[in-house]
Amino acid sequence: MGMAMSAMTTPLRQACAVRLVDRRTGLTHRVNGSPLVLFTRNPTEAIAELLSGRDASVWEARVEPIGGRT
Q: What's the pTM?
């Protein structure tokens, strides 16, 4: 299960996947058939990049830690 973007305030020690999700369908946005996912240790920056210029009522970013604990 992913974390809400408001829960992300500082860079993590572990990597995470940040996905752009369409609120209307609940599906991850795809580009040329591939899911749009950013892998990072700083989800706040990734969220800002993914949501830049997008309507927040349509799009949300979901953060999922990769491996281990945060």
A: 0.74
